[in-house]
Write a structure and sequence with these properties.
single chain, alpha/beta, Udp-n-acetylmuramoylalanyl-d-glutamate--2,6- Diaminopimelate Ligase, Chain: A, domain 1, 10 helices, DUF34/NIF3_sf
Length: about 290
């Protein structure tokens, strides 16, 4: 969703937008190591334009500033780990200064948006073909078992691993990596587990749910190799097959949902705001080289 035209008002304050975000992706759902919060901005400032993106990288900051955005809302935090300086001689400090100089706030919704309903994991499992309303969290949150990290659910009809991979390749943003797949392409799968972003810490949980295939990102060699060996070993049932997407691609499908939901909540509270979803590719890789084969 993109609502690019300035609205006649009344416009929300930044504090109003943060409250709306908290109602959609409650900040208390974030992991204890996370930094989902208002990172830059005055709570009393007025917000007319919001820019949504996965990563608060230089290109996205410039895009938001050039669009006249009053708020940049990103999935990934800019200041995830402690810093002692935001001087503009570093890329993080430069981003902070560019935002402040142009009156653009920065709000980050990371693992709270991973766990919330209609968040990152729901968007990813919907792209697989599973109704997110019928999907359950892989790791339910301690405060609410209806939400949590990852999702697992059942396709309306079984498909081959190749068909599911092709479906995701068509729906995820294009990246240099594309999709890496481990498993028999002709094997039929019906129970799907997903985790947007880095998900190789959840292999045992995925296996306990009996998933036929696991869709995630950032799969490292050793965890993926061990998962494959277990899946193909004696007494195992060949589960789960693995589909490894680029990190940013696995999370980007949430952005249009976020724009739609944020606009709806603000409108229900009497506010008008223009929201734009960035299509700038922020995956760090530019190209791949395939080794020649005889």
């Amino acid at each position: 969703m993109s609502t690019d035209r300035p609205s006649p008002g009344p416009h929300p304050t930044l504090q109003d937008v943060v409250a709306a975000a908290d109602s959609l992706w409650p900040f208390h759902l974030q992991e204890d190591w996370d930094a989902s919060c208002l990172a830059v901005g005055r709570p009393e400032s007025v917000v007319e334009r919001i820019h949504l993106a996965v990563d608060p990288v230089d290109g996205v900051v410039r895009e938001a500033v050039e669009a006249g955005a009053d708020l940049l809302l990103t999935h990934h935090p800019l200041l995830l780990r402690g810093v002692t300086s935001v001087a503009a001689d570093g890329f993080k400090g430069r981003a902070v200064h560019d935002l402040v100089d142009h009156g653009c706030a920065l709000l980050c919704c990371h693992t709270n948006a991973d766990s919330a309903r209609r968040g990152v994991s729901d968007a990813l499992i919907a792209a697989c073909g599973v109704n997110p309303d019928d999907a359950a969290p892989l790791v339910p949150h301690a405060t609410d078992p209806r939400v949590g990290l990852g999702r697992v659910g059942t396709l309306a009809g079984a498909v081959t691993l190749r068909e599911l991979s092709d479906r995701l390749a068509a729906r995820l943003p294009a990246t240099a990596q594309g999709l890496r797949v481990a498993g028999d392409p002709g094997r039929r799968v019906s129970t799907v587990a997903v985790c947007g972003g880095s998900g190789d810490s959840l292999f045992d949980v995925v296996r306990s749910h009996g998933a036929d295939v696991y869709v995630t990102a950032d799969l490292r060699h050793h965890p993926a190799s061990e998962a494959r060996e277990r899946a193909l070993g004696p007494g195992e049932h060949g589960t789960p097959a693995l589909i490894d997407a680029a990190h940013s691609a696995s999370e980007a499908l949430w952005l249009p949902w976020a724009a739609e939901d944020l606009h709806r909540v603000l409108a229900s509270r009497g506010f008008e705001v223009a929201i734009h979803v960035s299509t700038l590719r922020t995956d760090p890789w530019d190209f791949t080289v395939v080794a020649p084969h005889d």
